[in-house]
Amino acid sequence: MIINNPIRILIVGIGNEYRSDDAAGLMIARTIRDKQLPFIAVKEEFGEGASLMEAWQGFQNVILVDAVSSGAVPGTIFRINARKETVPVNFFNYSTHVFSVAEAIELARTMNLLPLNFIIYGIEGKNFTAGTTISTDVIKAAKQVVKQIVTDAGRVTG
Question: What is the pTM assigned to this prediction?
């Protein structure tokens, strides 16, 4: 029996809303969820690798969003095609889990479990200390990422 699943894209927002800029991925995911776009599912995750691999299971088109720490200028936006590029492990320094985002992606690649289309948006954070205030540069970048995701989604669902 073939099931016609109308969901074509999964947006995975990663973060911790109580660690300042680390909430960027969650903020983006919630903004997209509020738009109620057809053919799009949204999940929120904390960044634990095994949970992430389970979250995207069964989806061919995944867009993952998270705050990163690479040493770049705060608010810098990174777009990585995880099917074609290796994800820099040092981007996700603030994960509280041993099995990080980058490691989950690389393990999924090795096991041939990576979604067919897998895009990662990372926003360079400035402040990852306890708190709920997101830096102005990160908020501006998050708005740009939302626009780009909506554009990307339109290409897949259009």
Answer: 0.90
